[in-house]
Design brief:
With 183 residues, this protein is of the alpha+beta class. The protein is 32% helix and 27% strand. A five-stranded antiparallel beta sheet has the order 1-2-5-4-3, covered by helices on one side. Strands 6-7-8 form a three-stranded mixed beta sheet. The longest helix is centred in the middle third of the chain and has 20 residues.
Length: 183
């Protein structure tokens, strides 16, 4: 198979989405630090580049966060070539495949919230090179975790409040607020 790589900018100017024409992973994997990449040969190799400051994988793309002071115009061609070579040589993303969990737990309201996040919010967030995880629901407040390009993105607060919070309030009347858990 001939591997093609193209890029898409994300709402976070520090991240770029490198999309390939092959499924890379079922679910997602976030390697926000060099230390966390020890169990990922692919992420570990990416962190060897001095300008890489974060790595996130989902379905058919890898989102790379660059360091401050580096310019996408300088590093994008290098990363495209590296990603192409890594995918062609089948460099592993995870040493052990983690199954994507879609069994939701908790009260009827919690299950409904998790289902909405999974069905409606997750695909939209993934399009921007990020991921969202449900953490908890307590006294009307839904806590989520944002990863990938969403982590530290200037527009993630708008996404969280105007998008996710409004959707959940409309579909689950018990929800009064959505907050993001800091990593």
């Amino acid at each position: 198979m001939n591997i093609n790589v193209y890029t898409e900018s994300t709402p976070n100017p520090a991240t770029m989405k490198f999309i390939v024409n092959k499924l890379l992973i079922n679910g997602s994997a976030d390697y926000a630090t060099k230390e966390s990449a020890e169990k990922s040969p692919f992420a570990k190799e990416l962190y060897k580049f001095s300008f890489v400051n974060g790595v996130f994988f989902a379905s058919n793309f890898v989102t790379i966060t660059k360091t401050e002071g580096s310019e996408w115009s300088d590093v994008e061609p290098i990363m495209k070539e590296f990603v192409k070579g890594a995918v062609e040589s089948e460099l592993k993303i995870q040493l052990e495949e983690a199954a994507e969990e879609t069994n939701f737990e908790g009260s009827e309201t919690e299950v409904k919230i998790q289902q909405i996040l999974h069905d409606y919010v997750r695909p939209a967030v993934e399009q921007d090179g990020g991921a969202i995880s449900y953490r908890s629901f307590n006294e009307g407040v839904v806590t989520v975790e944002l990863r990938g390009s969403c982590s530290g993105c200037p527009s993630s607060t708008v996404t969280l409040k105007a998008g996710i919070e409004n959707l959940l309030k409309r579909m689950v009347p018990e929800v009064t607020e959505v907050v993001s858990e800091a990593l």
